[in-house]
Amino acid sequence: MRIDSYGQKIYNEADICNIYLTDSTRIPKQVLCDQYVQFDADLELTNIPEILEYVEPHPSLTLQQFDSGLQEEWFIPEEYEDFDIANHVLSLCKTDEELQRAGQELIMYQDRNMFDLLIYLKYLVDTMRKHNVVWGVGRGSSVASFVLFLIGIHRINSLFYEIPIEEFLK
């Protein structure tokens, strides 16, 4: 396996065979391959991933352009496509201080074109809760975001601990 300049894992046929032989539970649902992969039809393999041909991104593409292109391909159910994340977040606020902080952060998210990411995170949290998935309390700079706290990504109230948003959205 190799990693391209955009951080994507690129597999070859030997990599995929090694995964099957060592730990078939690690097989991703989709893999990018830099060469044609042929499986023997007589083998009774389960969990065969969808093999996607790796195409090197155009060299003039910036990392931001590459990321935004991938975001357009995220799976998100129809009920979340037109979800008003700003209204939802503001409705979760209980005090004027919370409204002010959430509003300030939402403007910062909007300026960075990150509303689609917030909607996706809302969908992710809802899905994890629906399936009783346990996730961490929070770590790193994400705990500086009060909006992420309200959505449920982490459990650290940045207002309570007086963590400035600048620690997250630098």
Q: What is shown here, in short?
A:
The protein is α/β, with parallel strands linked by helices and 170 residues long. It has seven helices and four strands; from the N terminus they run ββαββαααααα.
3D structure, described in words:
It contains seven helices and four strands; from the N terminus they run ββαββαααααα. It is of the alpha/beta class. It folds into two domains: 70 residues, no CATH class; 90 residues, no CATH class. It has a four-stranded mixed beta sheet with strand order 1-2-3-4. It is elongated and about 60 Å long. The mean pLDDT is 83.
Strands of the biggest beta sheet: in what spatial order?
Answer: 1-2-3-4
Point out poorly predicted stretches. Answer: none
Number of beta-strand segments: 4
Computed CA radius of gyration, to the nearest angstrom: 20 Å
Structural class: alpha/beta
Q: State the separation between the terminal residues, measured CA to CA.
A: 33 Å
User: How many separate structural domains?
Assistant: 2
Average pLDDT value?
A: 83
Q: Quickly count the helices.
A: 7
Shape: elongated
Largest beta-sheet details: 4 strands, mixed
- Please estimate the helix content: 40-55%
Q: Can you write the helix and strand succession as a string?
A: EEHEEHHHHHH
Fraction of residues in β-strands: 5-15%
